[in-house]
């Protein structure tokens, strides 16, 4: 069975059965013909439109008195005269047979196993790919030196093999001395050989849609067929698609029977599973056997060359030579599919000594509140907001110090094995890397006419007088993919859903008599939730409450954490919404929960800040001191709230907004009376106002509330569920 009509001779159009592929796609049998390479002939070959590989049927071989034997490493096909006519090598649970030495078409045979029960290769290593196939070429392209071929007469030739020989006889065979990684071999294009018909027709079995074409009594070869048809393991490949991915099918993410949807193609396009490595190796030795990771490492080193990062020099004396290390990570898309293997070369910065190898390391980092404030400003001004990821950002930072590093593991210069690299620019994990990159970036932006923020040194502003066109009606922040990844990481994808992250009147305590649980798992779950709170204020209080018990977590604490995950299971796509048609007034709310912590009876401060009705800052934090009354606890809350208000007020000056008399709302009149921020009140910076408890938005950050109140609060704070 083949999917290339041009390789068939004596082709006759004839409607046949529908064939089901490894995915959900199907192909229709359009006709039959003869396929030959001059030595072996295939009769009654079905042409199935859309099929990408030649397939042989083991059962039909046996029906024609052929014997097929399987071993741990290979399989053999013998004719009725007990002579070996075909031999294939095993890669995982798939046996591959090369008909000749240079074709793009490969015959596959599968041995049934406990996890693979379809002869037509549903879990075939080439079931999907992450880039489209290219068309077969009439002129093959060589990717590696000529490998050893066994023929009746061969040579001498001008191009020597890997072993240095130029001619061979059949009774000599040497394995190539280059470690190879091609799991599926290549052979010559079958449409370039002359037709030879010498075998009787073989009728293909009908009925099953998964029947593959058989082979009946192929032409007998010489006494060493293994050498003549199976020698070139990795000879010729198409330039943009090499079958060099030897990864087990159980490493494939998602369902191998379904199509993969990427940014450039729809999910109904047939792709290859395991075209990219799903495994994140730790040691370099593992990666050198995998072309996916070798390509990723070469791409990283190409960035070094492009940016002129280093220069190969003699090893200096009395200088610290810093070692290098490869870090391997898989980049996933929003569906969790591996779309890129990333290799990062980092320095062993811990070997640097302050005052000797570097002086300053400080570099400013943007606060999350500053980012949300910028988004609110962009929504208010109808700006189009762009997010950019600088590739190999640190490689652009220039070094002021003299730094030497070793050659990258696995990529040592054979001519200068003891040389080292002198760094011209910074490298990841160097102590001075963040500062050098910041200085390079800030210098470039200032030269381009940007102005550095007076309060926030990570903010750069450039004003235009031109009219800015309106774009979309809203900006929103969402971490839906992260939520799904987090649920999968902790095996909670099948858990039941909850309406709220914490049910009132739950008050966690130390639970000294409770059963202890694994500390690492609990802390891992807490860490994941804390990262999520950057865009999910609805889980802020519940998460912060659970963080207080990381030292000795109990089952009761784990139950509370799992409830948060169950709530996220039902609301993975909840977004923080910034509409463009709102105002730009800054408003603050403060509240506290008196003696809410059962460990030390400390109160919890909660607050939120809205810019034109858009939530840009929120807090839920246990107070540092123990308050003796409700008024005292409420007094502490407005103080910290006003500090945040003043920072935001100064931040907005860089955007050209000068705000005054910013309202701060509190639901305790006693706290308002004793609050001593006289200077800012008299200067007109802030104003304290009373607000009834039922309108107090920070209730979401100080205590668990019922479902009705919870939904009301997240709606007023500008959180929307697009799935609702």
TrEMBL record:
CDD domains: RNase_HI_RT_Ty1
Keyword Cell wall biogenesis/degradation included in the entry's annotation: no
GO molecular function annotations of the record: aspartic-type endopeptidase activity
Every Reverse transcriptase Ty1/copia-type domain range: 308-464
Domain Retrovirus-related Pol polyprotein from transposon TNT 1-94-like beta-barrel: 1-65
A Pfam family this chain is assigned to: Pol_BBD
Record has Oxidoreductase as a keyword: no
Keywords assigned by UniProt, alphabetized: Aspartyl protease, Hydrolase, Protease
Domain of life: Eukaryota
Protein name: Reverse transcriptase Ty1/copia-type domain-containing protein
Organism of this sequence: Centaurea solstitialis
Source lineage: Eukaryota, Viridiplantae, Streptophyta, Embryophyta, Tracheophyta
């Amino acid at each position: 069975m083949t999917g290339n009509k041009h390789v068939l001779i004596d082709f006759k159009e004839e409607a046949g059965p529908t064939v089901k592929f490894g995915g959900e796609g199907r192909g229709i049998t359009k006709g039959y013909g003869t396929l030959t390479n001059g030595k072996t002939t295939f009769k009654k070959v079905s042409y199935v439109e859309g099929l990408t590989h030649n397939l042989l049927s083991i059962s039909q071989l046996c029906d024609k008195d052929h014997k097929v034997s399987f071993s741990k490493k290979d399989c053999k096909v013998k004719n009725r005269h007990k002579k070996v006519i075909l031999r294939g090598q095993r890669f995982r649970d798939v046996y591959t047979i090369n008909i000749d030495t240079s074709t793009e078409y490969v015959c596959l045979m599968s041995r049934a196993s406990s996890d693979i029960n379809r002869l037509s290769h549903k879990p075939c290593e080439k079931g999907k790919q992450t880039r489209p196939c290219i068309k077969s070429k009439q002129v093959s392209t060589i990717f590696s030196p000529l490998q050893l071929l066994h023929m009746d007469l061969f040579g001498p030739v001008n191009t020597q093999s890997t072993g240095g020989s130029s001619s061979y006889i059949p009774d000599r065979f040497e394995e190539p001395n280059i470690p190879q990684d091609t799991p599926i071999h290549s052979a010559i294009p079958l449409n370039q050989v002359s037709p030879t018909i010498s075998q009787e027709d073989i009728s293909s079995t009908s009925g099953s849609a998964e029947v593959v074409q058989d082979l009946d009594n192929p032409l007998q070869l010489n006494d060493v067929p293994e050498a003549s048809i199976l020698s070139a393991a990795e000879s010729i490949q198409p330039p943009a698609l090499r079958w060099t991915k030897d990864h087990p099918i159980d490493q494939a993410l998602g369902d191998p029977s379904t199509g993969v949807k990427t940014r450039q193609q729809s999910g109904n396009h047939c792709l290859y599973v395991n075209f990219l490595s799903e495994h994140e190796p730790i040691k370099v030795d593992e990666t050198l056997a995998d072309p996916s990771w070798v390509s990723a490492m070469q791409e990283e080193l190409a960035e070094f060359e492009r940016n002129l990062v280093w220069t190969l020099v003699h090893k200096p004396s009395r200088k610290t030579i810093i070692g290098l290390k490869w870090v391997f990570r898989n980049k996933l898309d929003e569906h969790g599919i591996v779309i890129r293997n990333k290799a990062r070369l980092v320095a062993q910065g811990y070997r640097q000594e302050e005052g000797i190898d570097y002086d300053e390391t400080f570099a400013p980092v943007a606060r999350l509140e500053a980012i949300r404030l910028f988004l609110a400003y962009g929504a208010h001004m109808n700006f189009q907001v762009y997010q950019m990821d600088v590739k190999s950002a640190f490689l652009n930072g220039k070094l002021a110090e003299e730094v030497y590093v070793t050659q990258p593991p696995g990529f040592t210069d054979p001519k200068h094995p003891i040389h080292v690299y002198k760094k011209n620019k910074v490298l990841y994990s160097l102590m001075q890397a963040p500062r050098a990159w910041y200085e390079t970036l800030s210098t470039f932006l200032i030269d381009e006419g940007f102005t550095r923020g007076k309060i926030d040194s990570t903010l750069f502003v450039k004003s235009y007088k031109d009219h800015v066109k309106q774009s979309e009606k809203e900006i929103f922040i969402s971490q839906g993919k992260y939520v799904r990844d987090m649920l999968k990481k902790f095996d909670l994808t099948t858990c039941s859903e909850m309406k709220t992250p914490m049910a009132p009147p739950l008050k966690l305590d130390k639970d000294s008599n409770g059963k202890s649980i694994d500390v690492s798992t609990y802390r891992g779950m807490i860490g994941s939730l804390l990262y999520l709170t950057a865009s999910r204020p609805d889980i802020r209080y519940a998460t912060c409450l659970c963080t207080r018990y990381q030292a000795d977590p109990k089952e009761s604490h784990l139950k509370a954490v799992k409830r948060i995950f169950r709530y996220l299971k039902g609301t993975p796509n909840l977004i923080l919404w910034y509409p463009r048609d709102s105002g730009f007034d800054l408003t603050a709310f403060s509240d506290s929960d008196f003696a809410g912590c059962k460990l030390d009876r400390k109160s919890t401060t909660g607050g939120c800040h809205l810019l034109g009705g858009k939530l840009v800052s929120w807090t839920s934090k246990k107070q540092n001191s123990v308050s003796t009354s409700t008024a005292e606890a409420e007094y502490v809350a407005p103080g910290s709230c006003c500090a945040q208000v003043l920072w935001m007020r100064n931040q907005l000056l860089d955007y050209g907004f000068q705000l005054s008399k910013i309202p701060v709302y509190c639901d305790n009149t006693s706290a308002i009376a004793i609050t001593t921020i006289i200077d800012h009140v008299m200067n007109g910076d802030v104003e304290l106002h009373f607000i009834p408890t039922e309108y107090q938005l920070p209730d979401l950050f100080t205590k668990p509330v019922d479902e009705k109140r919870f939904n009301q609060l997240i709606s007023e704070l500008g959180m929307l569920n697009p799935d609702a």
